[in-house]
Fold this sequence. Notes:
Blueprint: E1 5-10, H1 14-23, E2 30-36, H2 40-50, E3 54-55, H3 58-64, E4 69-72, H4 79-88, E5 92-95, H5 103-116, E6 120-122, H6 130-140, E7 147-155, H7 160-164, H8 179-195, E8 198-206, E9 218-225, E10 230-236, E11 246-251, E12 254-259, E13 262-268, H9 290-308, H10 316-335, E14 339-340
Parallel strand pairs: 1-2, 1-4, 2-3, 4-5, 5-6, 7-10
Antiparallel strand pairs: 7-11, 8-9, 8-14, 9-10, 11-12, 12-13
Helix pairs in contact: 4-5, 5-10, 8-10
Amino acid sequence: MTEPLRIAIVGAGVIGAVHARLVATLGEDGVLAAVVDVEESRGRALAEQYGVPFHVSAAEAYRTEKIDIAAICLPSAFHAAAVIEALEAGVHVIVEKPIDVTLDAADRVQAAERATGRTVSVISQRRFQPVASFIRRSIDEGALGRVTSGVVESAFFRAQEYYESGDWRGTAAIDGGGALMNQGIHALDLLLWMLGRPVSVSAKTGRLAHEGIEVEDVAGATIEFESGAIGLLLASTAAYPGLPVRLAVHGSHGTAVMENEGLAFFASASAPQPEPDSLLERDVPEGWLDVDVAHRRQYVDVVGAIRSGGRPAITTDDGRRALQVVLAVYESARIGRPVDLHE
């Protein structure tokens, strides 16, 4: 019988607690082995909740526990350093989005990944939702014909208290950005997954509904892709009361629309309608959202990649590309003209 991989949560805040809950359900794929946090009371409380050791530093956890995977759940600007520390300790990594807040940091992560031969995956769990997978298969199988455009909306709402809940939230240096970098990046990743390599970005951003923050709460962009397809992006934390994430992909022979976890519309000149029940998430634990199941599915994918020696479905290339587009949106908004993307 294969032993479960031992997973350490590095960062015991809100998202770290989510990861701990997911890891606790992995069964033969993984077990929670440690919690790390510089804030002892918070970290120790999460560790005690799951009956695992607590460490105030990741280095200590890697040295004293048998850790196979580190789940990096720290503020965005601390991601690269934490990922590299884990890799150099011989530990595989799952890192929350974004991969970090600068391309230089992303490049350092990739250099360390190559040097150590360890696996790194960036969280983008919406790719693992059944409807998102169905739309991607429809594209690959030609059911939409030539993809001509895509529209993605992440119209969320965050009250002022959200930004005041941590002194790093809403800061350019640590948060790295606002509605797009931290909320809309999931929807952006879906658009990139569907439409391919982006080559140019034209954008506007605004800080319209929140006070005391350095980052945007609204971002809009037009993205040109290598194929010639055009993508439209809206990311907001100023859209009360918040709407479902919406993705529409249009092609010469079909259109598919996803709203949150549901298929809102599908038409194809060559492919039949999917069975109504075929895209439903099944076996959702009580109190979980469908996206939580997708999040856990990404963990299973990473475990499979580690055991097989293959690559995870979502790589550091994917994480870097999403970050590159986010930064291009910010740069285009700053200079008032399109930004070309260069690999």
